[in-house]
Amino acid sequence: MTCIRTLTALCAVSSVVLFMTGCGGGSSSSKKVGIDLTFEAGIRGAEAEPSMSEYNVDDGDIVYLNSRVSGTIASVPDTVTDASVVSLSFNPTVSGEVLVILTSNAPDVDLAVSYDTLLLGSPTEESQQAGSYEVLLLDIRDTREYTIDISTIGDGGSFELTLVEANRETLGLADDEYFVTYQKWGTVLCDGKADEGIIENSHSIINWKDGTVNYDDQTLKFSSVDGYEFSVDNALSLGSITETLSLVVDVDPETGDVDGSIDLLRNYSTGDYAQCKTAIDIRKGKVRL
Q: Torsion over CA of 37, 283, 137 and 12, rounded to 10 degrees?
């Protein structure tokens, strides 16, 4: 799996002010923590969605840039171990950043985009989030042919696939929200023993001004700020599992470059493990839109 490529920094920030405001005169726990940070157009990217075409597709069809297509993916019977896949061809006519967004009424679908090259085989960009909303932001360097695979290992259903020149409107971003891509590199230790390694692409929507970050399908509030760095401390109880998350993110206000760390501690009252610790470095992060 290859990693989402980042852009060269273009512009600076227009205003950056740290703030902490009370909500209704309550205690410190009720105070809003944020960073009054506004990126200029060169980092924000295009605002409006271009004119779009809409049509239906089947397995093996060709799809085009600035289109929103609909189709269906078959369910996988219990007796079958292979995934159900719909493959589409995409041959962009221009270079640049392209958003690929997949939504579906199937419980869990995955998205992969690949291309053939004599030197590298078939480099692939993947989005395998839980559920049925997947997003990739591709940096298209030439007009080679790409293969888009939509897959499921469970129930099928209808899907909608959007391929569009990168813009904020298609993502539904509010004025102070930013789409940030990054790589997660880390390890998982369960009861002190190595369980798995992590190298994957991910993304979050961050609102520095309101002090919120969308992470792992949750909208979390900043706990504290220090310069251009914010921290989130969050605890959850999920039946037999208790979870403690510590997230630290730092941004360069002039380039939109992002780095940080994620530490996740899970304690289990039942199951194979008593405790698992996940330690992740956030690398090559970038405000993309």
A: 30
